Structures are given as structure tokens and as C-alpha cells.
Write the C-alpha cells for this entry.
Amino acid sequence: MHAYWEPVWLTLKLASVTTVLLLVIGTPIAWWLARSRHWLRQPVAAIVALPLVLPPTVLGFYLLLLMGPDGVVGRLTEQLGLGLLPFTFEGLVVASVIYSLPFTVQPLQNAFQTINQQLLEVAATLRASPMDRFFSLVIPLARPGFLTAGVLTFAHTIGEFGVVLMIGGNIPGETKVLSVAIYDHVESLEYTQAHWLAAGMVAFSFVVLVSLYSVNGRWQPGVVK
């Protein structure tokens, strides 16, 4: 039973850490993309969206090279005494952050773009600092975007397969997440175990999406809360 639940808890841990990190990292990126008119805006937006169109194995392959002993990141982590990231939980976190980046940034960017600029200008005339305006106005007004970003990032990380298999391999208790465990069961013709894990993921995804649509629907203008 422990071996059965171990990938589930590891997957939940990975999704939780990834979601928290991406909300911290993705918020300033989304704010800059929503407000900037710099010529780099489009190239940066394309880089952020790249995981949406790249096959996960391609992304995983290049991350493996970068974080390996001959890669730039790999040499840096070794010099810092951190060791190599591939086939570790920390490596899974790095790969998941990159792979799920657009699922955090794009909902936040859309939410930021809908905020009335005049509200921020009025707050500025009242001598509210940029930080005050962001935390007092932007975050509350963008609340549905933060909810959507957090839920989609969490759910997407749980469903990862190609990237986590390339970076983490299949180490029980360390990198064997739920999607890899399902693959193992199918490969071993253990369809009953695969069915229970896969059905659980389907049910989880359905509940997450229904809850997200329901909550966001209550926050739409004109809808009774």
C-alpha cells in the first residue's frame, strides 16, 4: 500500500512546490507583459508560451543537456556544491516550473490587462507607491486570474509525463510521480492498478475544472455572488 500511495504524495508535493514558485516567478513576468510596450515583449511572450507547442520530450531533452555534467546549469550547480539536478526531486521542480510557466503567466497577464488603468492613476495621485497600488488594487482585482493560474498550474503539473520522465527517470520515492507510475503499471500489464490511478486523475481533473468554472463564474460582473 505504501508503494501505491508514494507516487501520489510525491506528485502532490511536486505540484504544490511548483505552483507556489510559479506564482512568485510568474506574477512579475505577467505584469510586465501586460503593461510593457518594449520591443522585447513579443519575444518574451513567445518564450513563455514555448512549452505549449514543444513536445515535452524535446523540452525535457534540452533541459537534461543543460542540467547535465556538461551543461551550463550543471557546471554551475556543481561549482556551488549542489550536485547535478537530473534524477532528483529538485530537478523535477526546475523542469516543472519551466514546463508549466505559460499556465501561470497567461491567466495572470489576461487578468492584469483587464484592470482599468484610471484606477491606478487615481491611486498614484493619492501618493500611493507602485508597491501599494499593486498589493492594494491589482492583486484584489486580479483575484480570478490568480485562482485560475494556481489551479491550472497545479493540475497541469500533476499530469506531466514526458518532461518528468526525461529529467527524473523512475526512482521510487524520489522522482517516480503518478504519471510515471501509471506508465509502469501499463508496461507491466497491471491494468487494474493503472486503471485506479488513471481514473483518479480523470476524476481529479474534472472536479478541478468544474470548481474553477463555478468560482470564476461567481466573480463575473453582473453575476450574483
